[in-house]
Amino acid sequence: MPAAQVSPRAKGRISSQTYSLPQTYCTRICIVSRVYISEIAYPEVRGLLGSCVQLMVVIGILLAYLAGWVLEWRWLAVLGCVPPSFMLLLMCFMPETPRFLLTQHKRQEALAAVQFLWGSEQGWEEPPVGAEHQGFQLAQLRHPGIYKPFAIGISLMVFQQLSGINAVMFYAETIFEKAKFKDSSLASVIVGIIQVLFTAIAALIMDRAGRRLLLTLSGVVMVFSTSVFGAYFKLTQGGPSNSSHMDLLVPVSMEPASDSVGLAWLAVGSMCLFIAGFAVGWGPIPWLLMSEIFPLHVKGVATGVCVLTNWLMAFLVTKEFSSLMEVLRPYGAFWLASAFCIMSVFFTLLCVPETKGKTLEQITAHFEGR
């Protein structure tokens, strides 16, 4: 998922220093929350609960868009203090995960945590404890149970960012303006609603459809939508490339105004389809799989590496996308994103295991060949 967008009303008013603390907070939440949920949830609902993290993220973005219509940025900052304050309060009543307590030789506390979280100990299988005490060492990367999930987790984060999500979001308001929307900030709200709706759908069907199916479906939708997006730029770009972002969506001069609006609606449709496809699969599932596929004793380091990869790729894609468009032209840049989406589909089919309904121990055993 790209970094949270700023509310339209607040754009241009908030310095980078203002966001340094929230970004640090968000990074830590990205690591800890998904791992915590994966360890406390039983397999039948782990996909639903894990996807709810992403659902809360996009709901928060949508609420920020809506609040941006009526609040100044200072009050938006104050409002942003409310959710973490509630989290700080409520987490005081939450136990440590049973698996972590077992690594600390606190079996009674682990059973009490299971009783609190599940309502009873029925159905809970005590995981074997042994290697968890070793911690992470580079030599462990020689073992299939370590390097395979490492490679899959990092690749998922790379493909998520190379899909073009940041580029599409970058042009969202401009595309809506070309489609003659009176209020360009309405574009942000529409995008937010699409994200919330389809992320909620993904959360509800995650434990029925499975991760692989949703990732594959999501990738196919993104291939189609980015291809259409590239075709839109091809149809509306004439003459030599221009480095100015504001000119990238200007239609050729010989094209009638009505055709220009029609093509803009083609871009709107493909953009909305892309966001919907991303929200169903490649938005929430890489984060969910990251919390499922790593053994307990390397999970902290491994999830940290995956989150670092995601943020690094988001930075590189956002920073270099304009240069890429100067070299390949806008349509070429989006067709390149389409090629990466095709690669992500094949990667899913060939490398990503299905974790639906499996315990964390069963997933680890799969990678170890047991």
Please provide a brief summary of the model.
The chain has 370 residues and is mainly alpha-helical. The protein is built from 15 helices and no strands.
Written account of the structure:
The chain is mostly helical. It has 15 helices and no strands. It has helices at residues 16-40, 43-68, 73-80, 82-91, 98-103, 107-118, 144-162, 165-170, 172-178, 185-209, 211-236, 257-280, 285-292, 296-351, 360-368. α2 (43-68) packs across α13 and α7 crosses α14 (296-351). The protein is globular. It starts with 15 loop residues before the first helix and ends with a helix.
Q: Level of helix content?
A: over 70%
In percent, how much strand structure appears in the residues? under 5%
**Unreliable runs:** 1-25, 239-257
Strand segment tally: 0
Radius of gyration: 22 Å
Distance between the termini: 33 Å
- Element-by-element helix/strand order: HHHHHHHHHHHHHHH
Q: What quaternary form is this?
A: single chain
On the 0 to 100 scale, the average pLDDT is 77
Largest sheet: none
Structural class: mainly alpha
Q: Count up the helices.
A: 15
Give the CA-based shape.
globular
Which helices and strands appear, and what pairs or packs with what?
Blueprint: H1 16-40, H2 43-68, H3 73-80, H4 82-91, H5 98-103, H6 107-118, H7 144-162, H8 165-170, H9 172-178, H10 185-209, H11 211-236, H12 257-280, H13 285-292, H14 296-351, H15 360-368
